[in-house]
Amino acid sequence: MSNSALYQPMQFGPYQLQNRFAMAPLTRSRALEGDIPSALAIEYYSQRASAGLIIAEASQISPQGKGYISTPGIYNAEQVTAWQAITNAVHAKGGHIFLQLWHVGRISHSSLQPNNALPVAPSAIAANGKTFTKNGYVPLETPRALELGELPGIVAQYKHAAQLALEAGFDGVEIHAANGYLLEQFLRDSSNHRTDAYGGSIENRARLLLEVTQAVTEVWGGQRVGIRLSPNSPFNNAIDSNSQATYSYVVEQLNQFGLLYLHLVEGATGGPRDVENGFDLTVLRKAFNGLYIANNGYDKAMGEAAIDSQHADLVAYGRPFISNPDLVQRYKIGAPLNELDNSTLYSGGAKGYTDYPSLAAE
């Protein structure tokens, strides 16, 4: 039985969490037609409500923000109703749940877009890679560059989605500015070649992210909003000539909004934790005025050490929570973990989603 502070309650903005575990946002491709969360998601999330904080899967803020088949949205009333059943179920078990707000930008395909339009991005530069559609995995297309006059509409979409998340009963929201999606595409100089007020200098490239953060905090207040960044991850071709300077500026500017937490991918998303090119992640940790959620490849021992050494305030676990709905209890008592079935990650249905056993069931 571990006595680590990882398992102890903590104050999290206006909330008292059961422990310092965060369930990371995990795309599972189970949404229904119309980007509506399925009834299966009620059981899936409530099974994992022993996590101190659940950050629900990335959810597109508009039909244009969609990049993969069967991902949920948060832009209309039907979606709000479906999410309400999920948040109610998590709250009934004493859990807390935030929603991650998402626009994929260029990481999409015309077959997923309204009227088969091209995906949008800061500049008409394609990313290497593929995305998942009804026809399987297909190569990413060269996106259309957003017009200057469209950017206020993008900000408005984030604000509308934030308002709907509030109506759906979430405890807060996380702005997804990581993993090579739209907001990070604006931040990175490899994907943003604009010559207007949203391109060129670091200040200009960060402008859209800061405007979105302003809009979202107008709905929620800073103490119920977090942000996810991945300054060292090359995922989805997120490359920058000077990440240290870019992200140091971003984090310093985010402090004006009084955000609850910074959720940082340490290293490559879903890959090595090594940080290259001399990037010092502790600079961002120290510069940010709120709480810090550490993410990427943490196991039991690493998580306990991160909390007990005060490296992090919470530790985000992803895949371990997929196959172990009672991960907190398993780690605390040193019980073995269920093995993850990778073939069911995005396969749809209950298999590999809601059928992993808990210790009690075993």
Descriptive report:
The protein has 362 residues and is of the alpha/beta class. It has one domain (5-344): Alpha-Beta Barrel (TIM Barrel). It is 29% helix and 16% strand. It contains eleven helices and 14 strands. The strands form four sheets. An eight-stranded parallel β-barrel has the order 3-4-5-10-11-12-13-14, surrounded by four helices. Strands 1-2 form a two-stranded antiparallel ribbon. The longest helix is centred in the middle third of the chain and has 17 residues, at 151-167.
- Which word captures the global form? globular
Order of helices and strands: EEEHEHEEEEEHEHHHEHEHEHEHH
What would you give as the CATH superfamily? Aldolase class I
How many domains make up the coordinates?
1
- With strands numbered from the N-terminus, the spatial order across the biggest sheet is 3-4-5-10-11-12-13-14
- Which CATH architecture would you pick? Alpha-Beta Barrel
Treating each run of at least 4 consecutive H or I residues as one helix, how many helices? 11
Which class in CATH terms? Answer: Alpha Beta
End-to-end distance = 19 Å
Poorly predicted regions are none
CATH topology: TIM Barrel
Task: Work out the number of β strands.
Answer: 14
The biggest beta sheet is recorded as: 8 strands, parallel, barrel
Strand content: 15-25%
Mean pLDDT: 96
What structural class is derived from the secondary structure elements?
A: alpha/beta
**Using only CA atoms, what is the Rg?**
19 Å
Fraction of residues in helix: 25-40%
